[in-house]
Amino acid sequence: MEEKTIGNLIKEYVDASEYNVKEFAQAISVSRANVYDIFNRNTMDIELLARISKVLHHNFFSDVASNMNLANPVNETEKESLRRKSIMQFQDVVPRILKSMNIEAQIFLGLDASITDEMFVPDYLISPYFITLTYGMTFEEKYNVSNSPYFKFKYFSDNKGHNFSIMSNIISHTQSCDLALIYRTEEEWRGLLEFIFSTIKNEYNDVTKNEIKKLQSEI
């Protein structure tokens, strides 16, 4: 007996929904032919899965996080498997944690990495709190901007091993919380998010207009 795939599961939910194939295709902005392809897939683009979850009112990230065999690409390397597992876990647990903390926020995906390598764009953004996440490393590490005159970083850590930084962009006068998107358990994500939100309330105003003007004059 073949293992059920993420495509099989999506087909089950579509069949049980009010959508026919044509309507479902329109709802997720793909062609009708692509819908049949989706039903046969054993892996799924993260952004597409997010759209499907929204349209069908079901968290497919939770399904994959609890049963990784649902999305198990052939010849996937260990590195690729860890990336998939990390992103699925993040998409599954973080919205649930934020809701339990009574924090209204949305998670936005960045643009495709092949398009944005030179554009300094994070992989994910938790809005409206300007929490940016870059897979496998921090934004600072990915773009090697530690010594850039255009960015200032302030680092935070607690006695439980949670750490993050607040990045100030001197050009745009904006601040964001910089995190690496790595695999964390739900308990680890909760601890980190609680630490972040207990810290950023006061720290986002740390770089004053005068400090920004001073930094700009030094560029």
Q: What assembly state would you assign to the polypeptide chains in this entry? A: single chain
Distance between the termini: 64 Å
* C-alpha Rg (nearest Å): 20 Å
SS summary, helix count? 10
Description:
This protein has 219 residues and is of the alpha+beta class. 47% of the residues lie in helices and 16% in strands. The protein has 10 helices and 6 strands. The chain has helices at 6-15, 21-27, 32-39, 46-56, 60-66, 78-100, 113-116, 139-143, 186-203, 209-218, and strands at 106-109, 124-127, 131-135, 151-157, 163-169, 174-181. Strands 1-2-3-6-5-4 form a 6-stranded mixed sheet. A hairpin with a 4-residue loop joins β5 and β6. α2 packs across α3 (32-39). The longest helix is centred in the middle third of the chain and has 23 residues, at 78-100. It starts with 5 loop residues before the first helix and ends with a helix.
Pick out its properties:
single chain, 219 residues, alpha+beta, 6-stranded mixed beta sheet, 10 helices, 6 strands, 47% helix, 16% strand
Topology:
Elements: H1 6-15, H2 21-27, H3 32-39, H4 46-56, H5 60-66, H6 78-100, E1 106-109, H7 113-116, E2 124-127, E3 131-135, H8 139-143, E4 151-157, E5 163-169, E6 174-181, H9 186-203, H10 209-218
Parallel strand pairs: 3-6
Antiparallel strand pairs: 1-2, 2-3, 4-5, 5-6
Helix pairs in contact: 2-3, 5-6, 6-9
